[in-house]
Amino acid sequence: MIEVELRGWRPDDVPVVLEAFRSPDMAQQSSHPIDTPRAALEWMALWGFRDDAQAFAVVAGGEVVGNVAVSNIDAHDTGWVSYWTSPRARGRGVAVAAAIKLAEWAFTERGLFRLELGHRVSNAASCAVATRAGFAMEGVERAKLRYGDVRHDVERHARLATD
């Protein structure tokens, strides 16, 4: 498996964020466009001021190639996992390695017990990442997400500290 490092986001990472959100599949993943340096900095800053979340830049081969995060941490010691990689880093196991490393951090450092994630049922790549990172499929949530005027079913996965 590829070696990755997780670290906080820094202002000099703006080009990586802009590159990632230029990808058509990523552009719809944010509630507002991330298409300027200011928007990228605001996206990074949003993660830095939350008690219920932590995001990390994913570094592989000395360069930032993605993001992995846990958010919506609740009173039940449950968090929501998300991840993305830049188009040039896809298909190399980066997201899998980052999700595994994030889960280890969340369970040991943050004291969480349950991690959840979801992906559109049509997103086979995200499903493969979740499964390879040890997140068991739990079911399908019908019409959970809406992008524009289209609603999408979401497949839910979870990983427990005891898995």
What does the model show?
With 163 residues, this protein is an alpha+beta fold. It has a domain at 5-117: Aminopeptidase, CATH 3.40.630. Helices cover 30% and strands 35% of the residues. The protein is built from 5 helices and 7 strands; from the N terminus they run E-H-H-H-E-E-E-H-E-H-E-E. The chain has helices at residues 14-22, 24-27, 37-48, 94-108, 124-132, and strands spanning 5-7, 54-60, 63-71, 78-85, 114-120, 136-147, 150-160. A 7-stranded mixed sheet has the order 1-2-3-4-5-7-6, sandwiched between helices. The protein starts with a strand and ends with a strand. The relative contact order is 0.14. The mean pLDDT is 93. One of its GO terms (molecular function) is protein-N-terminal-alanine acetyltransferase activity. One of its GO terms (cellular component) is cytoplasm. This is N-acetyltransferase domain-containing protein. Residues 4-163 form the N-acetyltransferase domain.
